[in-house]
Specification:
about 240 residues; alpha/beta; Rossmann fold; seven-stranded mixed beta sheet; 7 helices; globular
Protein backbone atom coordinates (compact mmCIF):
# COMPACT_ATOMS: atom_id res chain seq x y z
CA UNK A 1 0.00 0.00 0.00
CA UNK A 2 1.25 3.48 -0.88
CA UNK A 3 1.07 5.57 2.33
CA UNK A 4 -0.69 8.90 2.59
CA UNK A 5 1.37 11.92 3.63
CA UNK A 6 -0.32 14.38 5.98
CA UNK A 7 1.39 17.77 6.15
CA UNK A 8 0.73 19.45 9.50
CA UNK A 9 2.05 23.00 10.00
CA UNK A 10 2.01 22.47 13.79
CA UNK A 11 1.59 19.55 16.12
CA UNK A 12 -2.23 19.16 16.32
CA UNK A 13 -3.32 20.51 12.90
CA UNK A 14 -3.94 17.14 11.28
CA UNK A 15 -5.80 15.85 14.33
CA UNK A 16 -7.95 18.96 14.61
CA UNK A 17 -8.68 19.13 10.87
CA UNK A 18 -8.71 15.50 9.68
CA UNK A 19 -8.46 13.32 12.78
CA UNK A 20 -11.46 11.07 12.11
CA UNK A 21 -10.56 10.74 8.42
CA UNK A 22 -6.98 9.79 9.29
CA UNK A 23 -8.02 7.24 11.87
CA UNK A 24 -10.26 5.48 9.35
CA UNK A 25 -7.46 5.24 6.79
CA UNK A 26 -5.10 3.70 9.35
CA UNK A 27 -1.85 4.27 7.46
CA UNK A 28 0.44 7.08 6.45
CA UNK A 29 3.06 9.59 7.49
CA UNK A 30 2.41 12.58 9.74
CA UNK A 31 4.86 15.29 8.69
CA UNK A 32 4.89 18.20 11.15
CA UNK A 33 6.64 21.22 9.65
CA UNK A 34 6.95 23.85 12.40
CA UNK A 35 7.34 21.50 15.34
CA UNK A 36 9.63 23.81 17.33
CA UNK A 37 7.20 25.78 19.48
CA UNK A 38 6.97 28.10 22.46
CA UNK A 39 3.21 27.82 22.97
CA UNK A 40 1.21 25.86 25.51
CA UNK A 41 -2.32 26.95 26.36
CA UNK A 42 -2.57 28.97 29.58
CA UNK A 43 -3.84 27.12 32.63
CA UNK A 44 -4.26 28.01 36.29
CA UNK A 45 -1.02 27.26 38.09
CA UNK A 46 1.02 26.90 34.90
CA UNK A 47 3.69 29.53 34.65
CA UNK A 48 5.80 30.39 31.61
CA UNK A 49 7.44 27.43 29.90
CA UNK A 50 10.59 27.29 27.84
CA UNK A 51 10.53 26.58 24.12
CA UNK A 52 12.33 23.29 24.85
CA UNK A 53 9.52 22.17 27.17
CA UNK A 54 6.81 23.35 24.76
CA UNK A 55 8.46 21.60 21.82
CA UNK A 56 8.98 18.32 23.66
CA UNK A 57 5.41 18.39 24.95
CA UNK A 58 3.88 19.02 21.57
CA UNK A 59 6.01 16.46 19.76
CA UNK A 60 5.10 13.88 22.39
CA UNK A 61 1.41 14.59 21.78
CA UNK A 62 1.94 14.19 18.03
CA UNK A 63 3.61 10.83 18.55
CA UNK A 64 0.74 9.59 20.73
CA UNK A 65 -1.85 10.68 18.16
CA UNK A 66 0.18 9.11 15.34
CA UNK A 67 0.43 5.81 17.20
CA UNK A 68 -3.35 5.77 17.76
CA UNK A 69 -3.92 6.25 14.02
CA UNK A 70 -1.14 3.94 12.79
CA UNK A 71 0.87 6.86 11.40
CA UNK A 72 4.62 7.36 11.35
CA UNK A 73 5.45 10.71 12.96
CA UNK A 74 8.18 12.81 11.35
CA UNK A 75 9.29 16.35 12.17
CA UNK A 76 11.08 19.00 10.12
CA UNK A 77 11.90 20.85 13.36
CA UNK A 78 11.42 24.34 11.94
CA UNK A 79 10.32 27.13 14.26
CA UNK A 80 6.69 28.26 14.34
CA UNK A 81 5.67 31.91 14.83
CA UNK A 82 5.53 31.56 18.62
CA UNK A 83 9.03 30.07 18.67
CA UNK A 84 10.38 33.37 17.29
CA UNK A 85 8.01 35.55 19.30
CA UNK A 86 6.23 36.78 16.18
CA UNK A 87 2.49 37.47 15.81
CA UNK A 88 0.91 34.35 14.29
CA UNK A 89 -1.68 36.16 12.15
CA UNK A 90 0.56 38.80 10.59
CA UNK A 91 0.84 37.69 6.97
CA UNK A 92 3.33 40.40 6.01
CA UNK A 93 6.12 37.88 6.51
CA UNK A 94 4.38 34.87 4.94
CA UNK A 95 6.38 35.05 1.73
CA UNK A 96 9.69 35.26 3.59
CA UNK A 97 8.70 32.37 5.84
CA UNK A 98 7.72 30.32 2.80
CA UNK A 99 11.14 31.00 1.27
CA UNK A 100 12.87 29.60 4.39
CA UNK A 101 10.48 26.63 4.50
CA UNK A 102 10.58 25.66 0.83
CA UNK A 103 13.85 23.72 0.68
CA UNK A 104 13.38 21.49 3.76
CA UNK A 105 9.71 20.84 3.03
CA UNK A 106 10.25 20.00 -0.62
CA UNK A 107 13.25 17.83 0.22
CA UNK A 108 11.08 15.83 2.62
CA UNK A 109 8.21 15.49 0.15
CA UNK A 110 10.52 14.38 -2.65
CA UNK A 111 12.19 11.80 -0.41
CA UNK A 112 8.85 10.39 0.74
CA UNK A 113 7.63 10.14 -2.85
CA UNK A 114 10.83 8.39 -3.90
CA UNK A 115 10.31 5.80 -1.16
CA UNK A 116 6.70 5.13 -2.17
CA UNK A 117 5.38 2.57 -4.63
CA UNK A 118 6.36 3.93 -8.04
CA UNK A 119 3.23 2.45 -9.62
CA UNK A 120 0.82 4.64 -7.66
CA UNK A 121 1.04 8.22 -6.44
CA UNK A 122 0.34 8.56 -2.72
CA UNK A 123 -2.16 11.11 -1.44
CA UNK A 124 -0.65 14.31 -0.06
CA UNK A 125 -2.88 16.31 2.31
CA UNK A 126 -1.91 19.96 2.86
CA UNK A 127 -3.50 22.86 4.75
CA UNK A 128 -5.80 25.20 2.84
CA UNK A 129 -4.57 28.13 4.93
CA UNK A 130 -7.99 28.94 6.38
CA UNK A 131 -7.69 31.26 9.38
CA UNK A 132 -4.70 33.19 8.09
CA UNK A 133 -2.07 31.74 10.44
CA UNK A 134 1.29 32.66 8.93
CA UNK A 135 2.66 29.11 9.29
CA UNK A 136 -0.35 27.58 7.53
CA UNK A 137 -0.25 30.15 4.74
CA UNK A 138 3.53 29.78 4.28
CA UNK A 139 3.04 26.02 3.86
CA UNK A 140 0.32 26.64 1.28
CA UNK A 141 2.57 29.08 -0.60
CA UNK A 142 5.34 26.49 -0.84
CA UNK A 143 2.93 23.92 -2.25
CA UNK A 144 1.52 26.47 -4.71
CA UNK A 145 5.00 27.42 -5.94
CA UNK A 146 5.86 23.77 -6.59
CA UNK A 147 2.44 22.61 -7.72
CA UNK A 148 3.39 21.02 -11.03
CA UNK A 149 6.29 19.12 -9.51
CA UNK A 150 4.21 17.90 -6.57
CA UNK A 151 1.31 16.78 -8.77
CA UNK A 152 3.65 14.54 -10.74
CA UNK A 153 4.43 12.66 -7.52
CA UNK A 154 1.26 12.89 -5.42
CA UNK A 155 -2.49 13.02 -5.62
CA UNK A 156 -2.98 16.35 -3.91
CA UNK A 157 -5.70 17.52 -1.53
CA UNK A 158 -6.12 20.56 0.71
CA UNK A 159 -7.91 20.17 4.03
CA UNK A 160 -10.06 22.80 5.70
CA UNK A 161 -8.03 23.97 8.68
CA UNK A 162 -9.84 23.50 11.97
CA UNK A 163 -10.75 25.04 14.30
CA UNK A 164 -10.46 28.12 12.02
CA UNK A 165 -12.90 26.80 9.40
CA UNK A 166 -15.63 26.48 12.02
CA UNK A 167 -16.07 30.26 11.64
CA UNK A 168 -18.06 31.02 8.47
CA UNK A 169 -16.32 34.33 7.75
CA UNK A 170 -12.81 32.93 8.29
CA UNK A 171 -13.68 29.91 6.16
CA UNK A 172 -14.94 32.04 3.27
CA UNK A 173 -11.86 34.28 3.32
CA UNK A 174 -9.57 31.27 3.55
CA UNK A 175 -11.12 29.53 0.57
CA UNK A 176 -10.71 32.71 -1.47
CA UNK A 177 -7.02 32.75 -0.51
CA UNK A 178 -6.68 29.08 -1.51
CA UNK A 179 -8.09 29.91 -4.93
CA UNK A 180 -5.66 32.80 -5.37
CA UNK A 181 -2.66 30.68 -4.40
CA UNK A 182 -3.66 27.94 -6.87
CA UNK A 183 -4.57 29.81 -10.07
CA UNK A 184 -5.95 27.56 -12.77
CA UNK A 185 -6.88 24.76 -10.37
CA UNK A 186 -10.48 23.56 -10.36
CA UNK A 187 -11.01 22.11 -6.91
CA UNK A 188 -13.92 19.94 -5.80
CA UNK A 189 -15.00 19.62 -2.18
CA UNK A 190 -15.37 16.27 -0.44
CA UNK A 191 -17.03 16.12 2.98
CA UNK A 192 -16.55 13.19 5.36
CA UNK A 193 -19.31 12.98 7.97
CA UNK A 194 -18.18 12.02 11.45
CA UNK A 195 -21.29 9.89 11.80
CA UNK A 196 -21.29 9.28 15.52
CA UNK A 197 -21.72 12.92 16.46
CA UNK A 198 -18.01 13.37 16.87
CA UNK A 199 -17.41 11.08 19.85
CA UNK A 200 -14.39 9.40 18.26
CA UNK A 201 -12.95 12.69 17.07
CA UNK A 202 -13.29 14.15 20.55
CA UNK A 203 -11.18 11.28 21.86
CA UNK A 204 -8.50 12.17 19.32
CA UNK A 205 -8.57 15.86 20.27
CA UNK A 206 -7.79 14.82 23.82
CA UNK A 207 -4.36 13.64 22.68
CA UNK A 208 -3.44 17.36 22.71
CA UNK A 209 -4.19 18.56 26.26
CA UNK A 210 -1.44 21.18 26.09
CA UNK A 211 -3.45 23.15 23.55
CA UNK A 212 -6.60 23.61 25.64
CA UNK A 213 -7.36 25.50 28.80
CA UNK A 214 -9.97 22.77 29.33
CA UNK A 215 -10.43 19.69 27.14
CA UNK A 216 -13.26 20.17 24.61
CA UNK A 217 -16.51 18.35 25.32
CA UNK A 218 -18.16 19.33 22.02
CA UNK A 219 -17.17 18.96 18.39
CA UNK A 220 -18.66 22.36 17.50
CA UNK A 221 -15.34 24.12 16.83
CA UNK A 222 -13.91 21.14 14.94
CA UNK A 223 -16.35 20.87 12.04
CA UNK A 224 -16.46 23.31 9.10
CA UNK A 225 -19.14 26.00 8.97
CA UNK A 226 -20.14 25.29 5.38
CA UNK A 227 -23.89 25.79 5.78
CA UNK A 228 -24.74 22.32 4.49
CA UNK A 229 -26.60 19.48 6.15
CA UNK A 230 -23.45 17.38 6.26
CA UNK A 231 -22.47 18.09 9.85
CA UNK A 232 -20.43 17.36 11.80
CA UNK A 233 -17.76 16.50 9.27
CA UNK A 234 -14.24 17.07 7.94
CA UNK A 235 -13.51 18.32 4.43
CA UNK A 236 -10.87 18.44 1.71
CA UNK A 237 -10.57 20.10 -1.72
CA UNK A 238 -8.93 18.32 -4.65
CA UNK A 239 -8.76 18.30 -8.45
CA UNK A 240 -8.81 14.52 -8.39
CA UNK A 241 -12.16 13.37 -9.77
CA UNK A 242 -12.56 10.35 -7.52
CA UNK A 243 -11.29 11.85 -4.27
CA UNK A 244 -9.85 9.76 -1.43
CA UNK A 245 -11.99 6.71 -0.70
Amino acid sequence: MTPDVFVSPHSDDICFSLGAFVRKRRAGILLTVFSNSAYLAPRPGRGPVSSDVATRTRMSEDRAFAAACNLEARFLELGCASFYGKPPFDLAGAGEKAAHTEAPLMQALLALAAAADAAARPWLFCPAGIGGHVDHVATLIVVGRNLDRIKCLYRLAFYEDLYYASDARARSAGLERLSRELPGCSLKRYAYPLGDGGTEKLKLLHFYPSQFEALPQSIERFTPADGSAVTPHEAIWTEDESGPA
